[in-house]
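hiii, so i know i said id send this last week but things got crazy w the move. better late than never?? heres the sequnce for the chain we talked about at the cafe, plus the structure i predicted for it. fair warning i was half asleep when i ran it
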Amino acid sequence: MIADLPQIIVTGLALGGLYALMASGLTLIFGVMRIVNLAHPAFIFISAYITWKLFTDLSIDPLVALAVTMPVMFVFGMIVYKLFFAREADNPRYIEITVLTTFALALIIEGVLGFIFKGTVRSTNPPYSQQAFFIGDIFLSRAQLYAGLIGIGLIAFLWVILQYTRIGYAIRATTQNRSAAQVVGVNVERTSMIAFGLGVAMAGAAGSLFSFVFTFFPGGHWEWLAILLALIVLGGMGSLPGAVIGAYLLTIASVFVNDQIGFKWGPMTFFLALFIVLMVRPQGLFGSKIEAT
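okay and structure toks below
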């Protein structure tokens, strides 16, 4: 076991960046608007299919496809927010409404993808998806490395936007206190729409990277939902740093379980972590404790 530990850590760190990117949009959307977006993995799969079409029909590399999927999904996200969530923002049962709405949206997306692409398992296969680096006895997939590094780079870019731009100030103000932000002049509806678009743009980027690291089919997004929820619940729902740390911790743990027990047991790491965190510390590592009202 000790001999395998460096390999486990390296693989977990490489995959952790992609998992963190997949979770970043989900936690941003919840943090700003309290939308529990059950359709987030479905958004990732939309981008994966766009990337697959660009790769198979136009020979566009998935890494280059990021320049297409991110803006497309950003606009798509703003449209989805305007159509389904903007009018209910002040509803006292808003969170419950978003759960039902995004669940229905995920089913619709699954049906549309299934109609267009059938149920065939797909992936993009650029040359680097079959290549690896070797450092002594340590094996490092180039696909996982590229996806992990780009994922963390995009999260850092998102963090810079949130910290140092005008829209970032508005998003953070809305996250902390929606009513107070509105009082001091923040256009909360516009800010929420842009924040939702940014969250879906992160899903778009994740989908392009996902397309050459994993396989996908229209109904496969459901198995990722609990995984992403586990990441953001562990870190604290609404916390971007928490999502990153949660992604690395659980990814390394999952790789360890895969190596020591068996591949089929790896996903159980996320499900067990979700159960334990909800029982012991429901606010997560970096989340604020919710006070009873």
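btw The mean pLDDT is 90. thought thatd interest u
miss u guys!!
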